[in-house]
Amino acid sequence: MNTERPSKDDYYLSIALEISRRGTCLRRNYGSVIVNRDHIVSTGYSGAPRGQRNCIDIGVCERQRVSVPPGERYELCRSVHAEMNAIIHASREQMIGGTLYLAGTEHSTGAEVYSARPCKLCARVIINAGIEKVTVRETQEKIHTYKVADWIRHEDFLSVP
Ligand SMILES: [Zn+2]
Ligand SMILES: [Zn+2]
Prior knowledge:
Helix content is about 30%, strand content about 20%. By secondary structure, it is of the alpha+beta class.
């Protein structure tokens, strides 16, 4: 039995992973946990706007149907992204200086998505929310933390092609 106590990053990433399983897209689903001073401020998963049908309800994700490459044409999927859903459920004061934990799962297999990175639009929203760090799992063993200040400095990451 593994009795090793998980690190805080592990703990919050495990919660984000569990939250991603509530997502409603047929392609991939993500879960976000916003943490500030060891306190969970907000959570969110990918899903259609309230009152609208989800990809899983209509049986098709347009983005998946036309095989859009990673990082492009997010508007074709019906989902509001996990990061955005977490951010709109917290106040700016709660988020300033905080960390957003992001984890994902493949809909078809339930396998964890490693090296998740927010899309360009979510990155902009994360910057304006005042969040300082974004933490993801690179592999089962390795955790990576992005500094949002680096995204602000490297503007090309934020420009939409
Ligand atoms: Zn979708
Ligand atoms: Zn996004």
